[in-house]
Write a structure and sequence with these properties.
This protein is α+β, with helices and mostly antiparallel strands and 591 residues long. Helix content is 34%, strand content 15%. The strands form 3 sheets. The protein has a 6-stranded antiparallel beta sheet with strand order 2-3-1-9-8-10, with helices on one face. Strand 14 (278-283), helix 7 (288-300) and strand 15 form a beta-alpha-beta unit.
Length: 591
């Protein structure tokens, strides 16, 4: 995972543009500590403005010759890419005109693809992987930007006072530089030329939800366990592509355990002398995830690394986590903090890439609130909505928490081809049916339930869903709430709607995170890059209507949904309650 940044259509002279480009790009150098590359394209030869493109490199593929920005052999096309293209060899073979790669970088395929199909969504739609890229064509004075199908890689776009366009992997690269900025929408492209100039154009249009919106008739393909299993195995194996040391994240839950199992089995089939798989987990001492991950690691024979952290160590990191993740979303911060701490340990070991299990809960309805889902239409709509929002939640968490320390995460559950298989399955085959022994994510569990050649022990394959912020230790979330109760007074919280009119916090924990966020990312534009709304156990607003009890239990923890073995009791109330008083509130200082 790298960092990309550009200032396009700038009125600055070349020297000032280069210096400004370096200053802004250096703010995201943590994403790519291995090398920095800068290109300034001067005004002239039909170009009214100058353009600058920067790349902060994390070398995973071809560490010796894959520096970016990449430049075409004739010098006309410049491209900076963040991500990995897993099918680049197949794409080279399918090109209409022969092309001899100049580097071993998987990202170089974008150069001949652009020459073949132009600045169209077809460039992005042919790629299989995770990516954001910024391409500039000197002859046409054309820039073309695209982001992967569900936003696995982060990307933001902003506009300066002089008409310039800023593009960067993280918000911090453009804070203070733009008058307006926003998230670059996943599955879209943006070009300054052509019929749809300066507008976002959707290129990702899967059959199961062409506009990535709910409301369509749910797919009706019946579940084929072998097809589902083979599709996921293919996705995992694709992501084992690396020229540097790598490992797997292993929480001991179903999703990460399946990933680890497939990796371990594939490595064993390669060679008995092939290096063993490294696995990593984090949690409070004796937490559910640490215990379960150890069982899986022992079963698979991985070289396992279990990291513990204390409540104080986690709390001390929260401020830096908010700065790194660029969010004030409560559940994201809760889950990101232990992942952030673990990433630092992983990097210290010399590991640059890990494969992780994000996305399974969105695709298969794995969150515990799905126990209350009333019908297949609601199930389908909720999963479509959840996938469309991943770039603001789990993809953001996984990517930025790991990239903060220069580690690349890969997520096979979100492979475009695998999504085409999994999301076309009849929602009835995915729904929870406790009466018939179907728990959450039954379909993917059953696909890997092979008694004659088991992938996992039954106690792991059928382990109850634990959200990451809970699985690291139930005391973690409770500790964060307690800190916020001490730091945020009743009078401060009483003024929440005036202090934060957009996405007003409903808990003191949320208020505290919002205050910290605004220190680093001031202004309404920054606040609007973060989602809001009521949620229970990570649901969308839609699912809040599935059960009457959800209205008062809207907390992101999986224990709030009322079905967890360690669920909050019936007296639990999520929103911070103000004490009853007949006294008028004290006047607030103008300061």
């Amino acid at each position: 995972m790298c960092g990309i940044f550009a200032i396009l259509s700038s009125t600055l002279n070349d020297a000032d543009l280069r210096q400004h480009l370096i200053t802004c790009s250096s703010r995201i150098r943590h994403r790519g500590p291995d090398w920095s590359g800068y290109r300034v394209i001067s005004a002239g030869d039909g170009r009214p403005h100058s353009h600058g493109i920067a790349h902060e490199r994390l070398a995973i593929m071809d560490p010796e010759s894959g520096e970016q920005p990449l430049v075409s052999e004739d010098g006309n096309i410049v491209v900076a890419v963040n991500g990995e293209i897993y099918n680049y060899k197949e794409l080279y073979a399918d090109l209409k005109a022969p092309y001899k790669p100049m580097t071993g970088s998987d990202c170089e395929i974008i150069l001949p693809l652009y020459n073949e199909v132009g600045a169209t969504g077809e460039v992005a739609s042919r790629l299989r992987g995770m990516f954001s890229f910024i391409l500039y064509d000197k002859k046409k004075d054309l820039f073309f930007i695209a982001r992967d199908h569900v936003g696995i890689t982060p990307l933001y776009i902003g506009w300066g006072n002089d008409g310039s366009v800023y593009v960067g992997s993280e918000l911090k690269s453009m804070i203070g530089e733009c008058t307006r900025f926003q998230c670059f929408p996943p599955g879209h492209s943006y070009c300054n030329r052509g019929e749809h100039a300066n507008t976002f154009q959707r290129w990702y249009k899967p059959e199961w939800a062409p506009e990535m919106l709910p409301g369509l008739k749910p797919p009706e393909e019946k579940l084929q366990l072998d097809v589902l299993r083979h599709a996921f195995e293919k996705s995992v194996v694709q992501r084992m592509m690396s020229d540097v040391p790598w490992g797997v994240l292993l929480s001991g839950g179903l999703d990460s355990s399946l990933v680890a199992s497939i990796c371990a089995r594939h490595i064993a089939r390669r060679s008995t002398s092939f290096p063993k798989l490294h696995s990593f987990t984090v949690g409070l001492e004796n937490s559910p995830d640490l215990i379960a991950a150890k069982k899986v690691a022992d079963y698979l024979g991985t070289i396992h690394h279990a990291y513990t952290y204390t409540l104080d160590e986690g709390a001390d990191a929260v401020r830096e986590v908010i700065r790194s993740l660029e969010t004030y979303d409560v559940t994201t911060i809760r889950a990101s903090t232990p992942m952030y701490l673990m990433s630092r340990k992983i990097k210290a070991m010399g590991i640059k890439m890990v494969i992780s299990g994000e996305g399974a809960d969105e695709v298969f309805g794995g969150y515990l609130y799905f126990h209350k889902c009333p019908n297949r239409q609601e199930f389908y709509d909720e999963t479509v909505d959840k996938i469309s929002r991943l770039h603001q939640y789990d993809c953001l968490r996984c990517n930025k928490a790991m990239s903060a320390w220069g580690v690349e995460p890969r997520v096979p559950f979100l492979d475009a081809d695998f999504l085409d298989v999994a999301m076309k399955i009849d929602a009835s085959d995915k729904m929870i049916d406790k009466a018939n022994g179907r728990i959450e994510k039954w379909a993917i569990r059953k696909a890997f339930d092979e008694p004659n050649d088991p992938y996992l022990p039954d106690e792991i394959l059928w382990r109850q869903k634990e959200q990451f912020s809970d699985g690291v230790g139930y005391g973690w979330v409770d500790h964060l709430k307690a800190i916020s109760e001490k730091k945020i007074s009743d009078s401060m919280f009483d003024a929440a709607a005036n202090r934060f009119p957009h996405n007003t916090p409903t808990t003191k924990e949320g208020y505290r995170y919002r205050m910290i966020f605004e220190e680093y990312f001031p202004g309404e534009a920054a606040a609007k890059t973060v989602p809001g709304g009521k949620s229970i156990a990570c649901s969308t607003e839609r699912a809040m209507a599935w059960d009457a009890s959800f209205a008062s239990r809207a907390d992101p923890s999986g224990r709030a949904a009322g079905v967890h073995d360690s669920a909050y009791d019936t007296t639990f109330h999520a929103d911070t309650k103000q004490p009853d008083t007949t006294e008028p509130p004290a006047k607030k200082s103008k300061n």
